[in-house]
């Protein structure tokens, strides 16, 4: 198991490590409050998609404080490995795993999605949350996630999205550019104000460069079949899934 902070492999990695360093203590509560409790709904959709495949071994990438990893363990009975580049997030996650009494089935370690420390076809299912905006090459990262997934296994992701309806998109833009930073400052201090200022522009710029059609093409190029997606909460969240094609 890797311990201590990971050396940054890219500018995106370094930024993510710095951005999330001061968040773990209040991360779980504020993630729900600032998303109007929609984050939990989106995670439930991801967990249900993974659980439907009845996996025995699951990899949860960008596991953070292990919220998804714990939910997967409870829902499936599988052994879950969670990785993240932020040691401070992992430390909080290990506390949560220990308090849940799931140390024997949920293991957390430092690692990068772009270079996973596992052999080919190691897992029956792979999940990842809020990841591709923090890597240098999303397509290459998807290929690496697919590499450790067995043929027939499922890959499921969750991230923010930009509403397509013009009225909801305008409301989303106003919230992410004004109310979100202000609420972050009031509830979480300077670290959350910084996240609030960053998040909206980052989501917008990502989907300008990676529209949904291009993302779907990258999933297919990574060897995923039956790729589908579900925008949630009027388009504020997006769950994507696919099955690794048989060899």
Task: Give a structural overview.
This protein is an alpha/beta fold and 247 residues long. It is built from nine helices and seven strands. The protein has helices spanning 11-20, 24-34, 38-51, 67-76, 87-99, 138-147, 166-188, 190-209, 212-221, and strands at residues 57-61, 79-84, 106-110, 123-129, 149-160, 224-232, 237-244. A seven-stranded mixed β-sheet has the order 3-2-1-4-5-7-6, with helices on both faces. It is globular. The two termini are 30 Å apart. The mean pLDDT is 91.
Question: How many extended strands?
Answer: 7
Low-confidence stretches: none
The gyration radius over C-alpha positions equals 17 Å
Global geometry: globular
Fraction of helical residues = 40-55%
- Which whole number gives the mean pLDDT? 91
Strand count, sense and closure of the main sheet? 7 strands, mixed
Q: Proportion of β residues? A: 15-25%
Q: Which strand order do you get reading across the main beta sheet?
A: 3-2-1-4-5-7-6
Structural class: alpha/beta
Distance between the termini: 30 Å
Count of helical regions: 9
N-to-C series of helices and strands: HHHEHEHEEHEHHHEE
Supply database-style keywords:
247 residues, alpha/beta, seven-stranded mixed beta sheet, 9 helices, 7 strands, 49% helix
SSE blueprint and pairings:
Blueprint: H1 11-20, H2 24-34, H3 38-51, E1 57-61, H4 67-76, E2 79-84, H5 87-99, E3 106-110, E4 123-129, H6 138-147, E5 149-160, H7 166-188, H8 190-209, H9 212-221, E6 224-232, E7 237-244
Parallel strand pairs: 1-2, 1-4, 2-3, 4-5
Antiparallel strand pairs: 5-7, 6-7
């Amino acid at each position: 198991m890797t311990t201590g902070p990971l050396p940054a492999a890219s500018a995106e990695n370094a930024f993510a490590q710095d951005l999330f360093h001061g968040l773990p203590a209040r991360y779980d509560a504020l993630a729900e409050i600032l998303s109007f409790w929609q984050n939990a709904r989106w995670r439930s959709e991801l967990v249900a998609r993974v659980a439907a495949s009845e996996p025995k071994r699951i990899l949860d990438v960008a596991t953070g404080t292990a919220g998804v990893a714990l939910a997967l363990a409870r829902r499936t009975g599988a052994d879950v490995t969670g990785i993240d580049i932020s040691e401070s997030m992992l430390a909080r996650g290990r506390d949560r795993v220990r308090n849940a009494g799931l140390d024997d089935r949920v293991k957390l370690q430092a690692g990068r999605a772009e270079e996973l420390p596992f052999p080919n076809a190691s897992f029956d299912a792979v999940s990842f949350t809020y990841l591709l905006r923090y890597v240098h090459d999303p397509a290459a990262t998807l290929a690496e996630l697919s590499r450790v997934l067995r043929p027939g296994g499922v890959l499921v992701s969750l991230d923010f999205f930009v509403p397509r309806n013009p009225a909801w998109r305008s409301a989303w833009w106003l919230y992410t550019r004004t109310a979100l930073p202000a609420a972050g400052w009031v509830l979480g201090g300077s670290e959350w104000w910084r996240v609030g200022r960053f998040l909206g522009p980052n989501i917008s710029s990502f989907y300008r460069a990676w529209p949904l059609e291009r993302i779907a093409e990258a999933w297919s190029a990574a060897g995923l079949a039956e790729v589908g997606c579900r925008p949630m909460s009027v388009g504020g969240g997006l769950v994507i899934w696919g099955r690794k094609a048989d060899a």
